[in-house]
Design brief:
Layout: E1 14-17, H1 24-27, H2 31-40, E2 46-49
C-alpha cells in the first residue's frame, strides 16, 4: 500500500496489525502499541505492529 500510494494528503492514519490470526486473545496484547501509535502519529502515517 505505501509503495503504491502517496498517503500524506489523506486525513487518515493506518495501523497494520501483523498476527497469526484475528482472535481477540492474539490481538489484545498488540493494543498497547496501537495506543502508543495513536498518540504520536500524524495523518498519512502508516505503522506495522507485530
Amino acid at each position: 500500500m505505501t509503495s503504491q500510494q502517496n498517503l500524506q494528503p489523506i486525513d487518515l492514519i493506518i495501523i497494520v496489525l501483523i498476527a497469526k490470526d484475528n482472535r481477540l486473545a492474539t490481538l489484545k496484547p498488540l493494543m498497547i502499541e496501537v495506543n502508543r501509535g495513536l498518540e504520536s502519529l500524524n495523518k498519512g502515517d502508516v505503522i506495522y505492529i507485530q
